[in-house]
Amino acid sequence: MTVVRIPVDCYISADFAALELARLWPRVWQFACSIDDVAHPGDVYEHTIGPYSLIIVHGEDGELRAFQNVCQHRGAELCTGNQHGVTELRCPFHRWTWNLDGTLSEIPSRKEFGIRNEELGLIPARVDTWGPLVFVNLDPDAEPLYEFLDPVPADALWADIDRFACNAAVAIHVDCNWKTLIEGFSETYHVQGIHREMLPMCDDVRGPQTTWQRHGKLQQSYGLASPRLHERPNDQQIWEAFVEVMGARAGADTIEAAGIVPNHGTTLELRASIAQRIREHGAAKGIDYERFSDAEMIDMHQYNIFPNITVLVFADMVNVVRARPGADPDHSYIDMWNFAPIPTVAGGGSVATTVATDTTTRVAPLHVELQAADGDLMGLILGQDVKNFGRSQRGLHQPGLAHLNVSETEECRIVSLHRNLAEYLET
Ligand SMILES: [Fe+2]
């Protein structure tokens, strides 16, 4: 039980942010988009991180490739935003053109340059997938993605994330450092601070936390009361708190839709009954959850993947929360990617996996940008987190504050982030 001191400079200093741009972002695997964004030949997705931009391109040969987003003529940005049905990558500036596989195909007035097509391909980047998540790395010599992610994919095998498709992604510009942001998703110590509505329905204290070499995990149980509450709420109160926080999982969007649960008075029975409601809600949408246990149905397996994402895995949903650096150390973007299971035919079985690997049936998700002030649109808990980011960051600028005091146990996933960051930054 010790305190780890984290210098405030790493959240507010322009020099520190410059070091991240020089030594972290060009070398680390990072989540770029969903497989649904680039499911078809001619799909192009632009991933930006600070000043860097990469394009992920689904080639006519079915291969996924990534390139630095820059024309090899005079360095203009090649593509802007996401596109579909693209047959070539043409720079609007002077119309130099590359094929989707990155080979040069056209230079207007070519004889003035004397460059042959095989001489000047686009600058490649690494790209690979874990389930429906697409990752990129600017470093051509980076270790394979699965080595980098180890042991997260093996730990999450039970959930078979290939079953999922992305339906929507929301980006919000927020007034805090990207680490302040992702650290809000790296501990549940703040549930008793800003998410008190969760206390009757969530064990915010005893959920086991794991830190591996790079990444971390929290397993958290829902449908039971926090040990911080001195008196156990009754079943109806626990159920209504569950509905307020995440009732849509069980087909109950409002307290009015919650209805009455039979009062079992035991955590086990109440959790089984909530798990069954989630299963039934899934079955009505053509999704079969019969193979998942009650605990797998109701609880969260949260992975903190270095450096800037957390993946929340449930049997019935996967959410990716990503923190992207903004224009200066005091700004960033929170990107939320929602994945839902692909409905199977009646009676399910292993059909979902077949559907998932066959990308032809996938459709590009909706992409929406919101402002931090649109908190109400984000749901109760996320809205509370977003409202808290600016306050967290402003405090860091007080001249008397030299370092933060972080618990090595309770906040171990934050400590792990900074240890890994120091390794990349060689500080
Ligand atoms: Fe939170």
Offer a concise description of the structure.
The longest helix is centred in the middle third of the chain and has 18 residues. This protein has about 425 residues and is of the alpha+beta class. The chain is about 25% helix and about 25% strand.
Any overview of this molecule?
With 427 residues, the chain is an alpha+beta fold. The chain has 2 domains: 3-29 and 154-425, Naphthalene 1,2-dioxygenase Alpha Subunit, Chain A, domain 1; 40-141, Rieske [2Fe-2S] iron-sulphur domain (Rieske Iron-sulfur Protein). 25% of the residues lie in helices and 25% in strands. The chain has helices spanning 9-12, 14-24, 145-149, 152-155, 178-183, 191-194, 235-246, 267-284, 294-298, 351-357, 380-395, 412-425, and strands spanning 3-7, 30-34, 44-49, 52-58, 64-68, 89-90, 97-98, 104-106, 124-130, 133-137, 164-174, 209-211, 216-220, 300-305, 309-313, 318-325, 332-341, 366-371, 403-407. The strands form 4 sheets. An 8-stranded mixed sheet has the order 12-13-14-15-16-17-11-18. Strands 2-10-9-5-4-3 form a 6-stranded antiparallel sheet, with no helix packed on it. Strands 6-7-8 form a 3-stranded antiparallel sheet, with no helix packed on it. A hairpin with a 2-residue loop joins strand 3 and strand 4. The chain starts with a strand and ends with a helix. Mean pLDDT is 94; it is low at 347-355. Bound molecules: fe (ii) ion (FE2).
